[in-house]
Design a protein that fits this description.
This protein has helices spanning about 15-25, 40-50, 65-75, 90-95, 110-120, 130, 160-170, 180-185, 195-210; strands at about 5-10, 30-35, 50-55, 60, 60-65, 80-85, 100-105, 135, 140, 145-150, 155, 175, 220, 225-230. With about 230 residues, the protein is α/β, with parallel strands linked by helices.
Length: about 230
């Protein structure tokens, strides 16, 4: 029932698309607000405090990528980028700047519903085991507070970066293929370039590794995928 109360902000300068999404999601029992430009979106965002923002890349007064980053510095909001751009480079840029998912116009409402549901599932109450803090020397991952600290300093991770790091750290030493990580962390069969995993791994490494060219915690297993290697506790 908690998911039914989720709050969603729809930001798109096309009134037909904006109204269509708002009406559709309202019928799915979400609380929905909308905005037609960046300035309005930020004002509504601060008052509404949404769980998810469906954000158009091209707005009359702002670039969606920048809004995504700005909103995520304020809260750990999920962001679904919405755009007519289908170029893979644009998608990679969106993911690297914090987007949790990417939907290209034109899209079906059924696909939108699946994407929204998958993202919001990450808000599910976690089990007692999943709530346990993960501590590796000076790195601490707190699933309940959704916080990561390194050397007692809070590390700013996006929602998806946190989920990916927590998942890998929960299975130290195990090697995961990109397709497996997408299925486990994204929570649905992602159709697209699996390099999105590489982008997120790269962003996490910038924040927790001493040397990103020689990562110690998140290691690449060539030809397979990635693994989290717990540092020697001695």
């Amino acid at each position: 029932m908690a998911m039914a109360l989720a709050k969603i902000l729809v930001v798109d300068d096309d009134p037909a698309i904006r109204n269509l999404i708002q009406r559709f999601l309202s019928k799915q029992n979400y609380q929905v607000e909308s905005a037609e430009d960046g300035k309005t979106a930020l004002a509504v965002f601060e008052q509404f405090n949404p769980d998810l923002v469906i954000l158009d890349v091209n707005l009359p007064d702002a670039l969606g990528y920048n809004l995504c980053e700005q909103m995520q510095t304020m809260t750990k909001v999920f962001v679904l980028m919405l755009t007519s751009r289908s170029d893979e480079a644009d998608k990679i840029r969106g993911f690297s700047q914090g987007a949790d998912d990417y939907l290209t116009k034109p899209f079906s409402l059924a696909e939108l519903e699946v994407r929204v549901g998958a993202i919001l599932k990450r808000q599910r109450s976690v089990s007692t085991v999943e709530k346990q803090r993960l501590t590796f020397e000076k790195l601490m991952i707190d699933p309940e507070r959704r916080e990561v600290t390194l050397n007692n300093q809070l590390i700013p991770l996006t929602a998806l970066e946190f989920d990916l790091l927590r998942f890998l750290a929960s299975h130290p030493g195990r090697v995961w293929r990109r397709s497996e990580l997408i299925q486990e962390v994204w929570d649905y069969e992602y159709v697209g370039d699996q390099r999105v995993v590489d982008v997120h791994i790269g962003q996490i490494r910038k924040k927790i590794e001493i040397d990103v060219t020689q990562p110690i915690l998140i290691q690449t297993v060539r030809g397979v995928g990635y693994k989290f290697e717990a540092p020697d506790q001695t």
